[in-house]
Design brief:
The complex is a heterodimer of chains A (about 160) and B (about 525). Chain A has about 160 residues and is an alpha+beta fold. Chain A contains four helices and five strands; from the N terminus they run H-E-E-E-H-E-E-H-H. A five-stranded mixed β-barrel of chain A has the order 1-2-3-5-4. In chain A, a hairpin with an 8-residue loop joins strand 2 and strand 3. In chain A, helix 1 packs across helix 3. The mean pLDDT of chain A is about 85. Chain B is an all-alpha fold. The relative contact order of chain B is 0.18. Classes of the chains: A alpha+beta (about 160), B mainly alpha (about 525). Chains A and B meet through strand 2, helix 3 and helix 4 of A and helix 2, helix 11, helix 14 and helix 15 of B.
Chain lengths: ~160, ~525
């Protein structure tokens, strides 16, 4: 029983560790990229093999104005059409090359289909930090002090 | 113009026997002033301002402005109001006349009546949206509006801007507006103690209880998508509170914080002045003003700062939250938040609670906006309350109808600019100068401390005399240069809207002329009554 519980705890810890590592990788990828968005390869333009035409569906990091527009992405190497068709929609991590021309940030291809992980990574980047807690606690404490002080006199 | 005998009697009674109404309890007046201050802005405007202007770091200029601008100005307005009340006046023209003792002073004071009237013209309409949305939430009347785009369509159709499957006419909006106006009128008709005070004594605790319940619910929210475990209220709080100190270098952040404090505390409108005119000579001011300001801050920072943004974060996620925060308070309140409640279990009840909370916040503010005009008619023109209520009610029905029908053409924005911003900043500045320099800070402090249960630290003499007026003049000049000039010159206004905006300005001018005329008549009557009384 004791051994079983130890194994379960170890499995949970391994899972948490793995999850945290994945989350950290995603966070690093977001930080390293100029533009991160959920996008789909544009049907109408398809690809020239070296350049992908990608329609921006939802911005994760970067200019909001790009939503609905098409950006040009330099492929690391010419990609066959069959691969492009299978890729379809996913998360693009891009580094700016020039105006409306981006290249895929190195080491981010593995995250292409992991939309939930990216959203989680972005959410965790917003997670309240100690400075936020300090400001929240101080503001609340100041206001609660004013309330208790003034109402104790008024009532 | 010959004077009616009844009116003369009324004036004599008012002035000689000091029969003006008064507040029932100290707690009642605190709740009434807090009710006036707590409005839609506490729950919708503040979170947006904070999130856009540095998060937690925004609280640095915000709290500095509260101490150096908001609370001192509240003390100033309460004191000026009580001085006016002691002389039988309930509004700014009377207060300015009593303190300045120059013939022109009463005309400067008309801003203190104009501001509330102009705000009231559009505020009741916005308040009626919250009542309507409480109804729509409870009875699940949003139909197919299940995303941001469709909910926006729902709102636009309700406002009569477009016609679609949700609403084919503006009648529902007009119905809820009329209902809201009637409720306001009924409360004010009951008087200060039996109407306003009673409603605030019930409304404010209900508002706070609803707010605390919603805070607890929001903080325990989980992401609607199981895989998105990090998309929770704690991350939403981070979006709202994690400080970005770099934003403090931007002067606009400091202006936004000062502006927020100014607008949230209801100072500079003329409403607190009127409420304070019903205080007795021995009533406390420093602790009561501080208590109502603190209650407002509780509603704004603790409740307002914890409900909408974290809830929107949980349901819309990190990719949409910035857009939502940027889209402004109305979009957040009437497009995004209804969707949040739609997605929750028991969302119809929670949605109802949220919009009913906003409605209480709105009505406790709007009744305070009605009171200066009523007080002016009663105190200065000797009208009976019934007559005053009927006149102001019909006036509001007529003028707000214009706002309702011409909403797409910028009518509401125009009234908001002149009444809700321009008059506020200007009147607040005039009050600070009146207290610190005309009445004199020493005499002002003596008046402030009559019946006081706490002593205001001496340091505030310096603050009220120098810092508050300078702070306000700074805001006025910066705001006028940055925002007012382009607005006045109609920059960026659509060509087809210009005639409507000019019509709105003409109406505001007409109201100003009418008030000037009434002030002139009132002082003529007062002279006659004084002579007869002697």
């Amino acid at each position: 029983m004791c051994r079983l519980s130890r194994i379960i705890i170890c499995l949970i810890l391994f899972y948490i560790q793995g999850y945290c590592e994945e989350l950290d990788t995603a966070k690093d990828a977001i930080k390293a990229s100029d533009l991160v968005f959920i996008g789909e390869i544009a049907d109408s333009l398809s690809t020239t093999g070296e350049t992908l035409y990608v329609r921006v569906v939802e911005i994760v990091k970067g200019k909001r104005g790009l939503e609905g527009k098409i950006v040009n992405v330099l492929a690391p190497e010419p990609i066959p059409n069959v691969v492009i068709t299978s890729l379809r929609q996913g998360v693009f991590f891009l580094t700016k090359q020039s105006d409306n021309l981006y290249r895929i940030t190195s080491g981010t291809i593995g995250l292409f289909k992991q939309k939930e992980l990216i959203i989680n990574a972005l959410s965790s980047m917003y997670k309240i930090n100690w400075k936020g807690i300090l400001f929240l606690a101080f503001s609340w404490a100041f206001i609660l002090f004013l309330i208790i002080y003034s109402f104790s006199k008024v009532i | 113009m010959p004077l009616d005998l009844n009116e003369i009697e009324c004036k004599i009674l008012n002035i000689m026997n000091n029969t003006r109404e008064s507040w029932g309890t100290r707690f009642g007046v605190v709740l009434a002033v807090a009710g006036s201050a707590v409005g839609l802005g506490n729950f919708l405007r503040f979170p947006v301002q904070a999130a856009q202007n540095g998060g937690g770091a925004f609280m640095i200029p915000y709290l500095i402005a509260l101490v150096l601008l908001g609370i001192p100005l509240a003390w100033v307005e309460w004191t000026i109001g009580r001085i006016a009340g002691e002389h039988g006046h309930g509004t700014a023209p009377g207060a300015f006349d009593v303190i300045v003792r120059r013939r022109w002073a009463k005309y400067v004071g008309i801003i203190g009546i104009m501001g509330p009237i102009i705000i009231m013209i559009y505020y009741t309409y916005i308040e009626s949206w919250t009542l309507a949305y409480a109804f729509f939430s409870l009875f699940k009347r949003y139909g197919t509006a299940t995303d941001q785009h469709l909910m926006k369509e729902f709102l636009l159709a309700y406002q009569g801007i477009t016609k679609n499957q949700y609403f084919s006419s503006i009648l529902p909006a007009f119905f809820f507006f009329t209902l809201t106006l009637l409720l306001n009128i009924l409360i004010v008709y009951k008087g200060i103690s039996k109407g306003i005070e009673k409603v605030c004594k019930i409304g404010m605790p209900v508002l706070l209880a609803l707010g605390i319940f919603l805070v607890i619910r929001v903080l325990t929210l989980k992401s609607p998508v199981a895989e998105l475990s990090e998309q929770n209220a704690i991350s939403g709080l981070g979006f709202m509170w994690n400080p970005n100190f770099a934003r403090l270098k931007d002067a606009r952040v400091w202006l936004a914080a000062s502006g927020q404090i100014f607008f949230t505390l209801s100072v500079g409108i003329g409403v607190i002045l009127t409420y304070a005119s019903y205080l007795k000579k021995t009533d406390d001011i420093p602790a009561s003003a501080l208590a109502s300001a603190s209650m407002n801050e509780f509603a704004e920072v603790i409740l307002g700062g914890t409900i909408v943004i974290p809830a929107a974060f949980v349901f819309f996620g990190p990719t949409q939250i910035e857009n939502i925060a940027r889209s402004g308070a109305f979009n957040l309140g009437f497009v995004s938040i209804p969707l949040v409640f739609l997605k929750m279990s028991y969302g119809n009840i929670l949605g109802f609670m949220w919009f009913f909370l906003l409605f209480i916040a709105g009505i406790t503010s709007s009744i305070s906006l009605l009171q200066p005009a009523i007080s002016f008619f009663e105190d200065e023109l000797g009208w009976h309350r019934k007559k005053a209520i009927v006149v102001i009610g019909l006036f509001l029905l007529l003028t707000t109808s214009l706002v309702i029908f011409f909403l797409p053409y910028g009518f509401l924005d125009e009234f908001d600019f002149w009444g809700g911003t321009f008059a506020l900043v200007l009147f607040g500045t005039l009050e600070a100068i009146l207290f610190g320099w005309v009445l004199g800070v020493e005499k002002g402090f003596d008046e402030l401390h009559k019946g006081a249960i706490i002593r205001v630290p001496v340091f505030f003499k310096f603050v009220i005399k120098y810092i508050t007026p300078l702070y306000l003049i700074g805001i006025l000049v910066f705001w006028f240069y940055k925002e007012a000039i382009p607005f006045i010159l109609l920059k960026g206004v659509k060509k087809e809207n210009i005639p409507y905006i000019i019509a709105a300005r003409a109406l505001i001018l007409l109201i100003a002329i009418l008030i000037v005329f009434m002030v002139r008549e009132a002082w003529k009557r007062r002279k006659t009554v004084d002579v007869q009384a002697k």
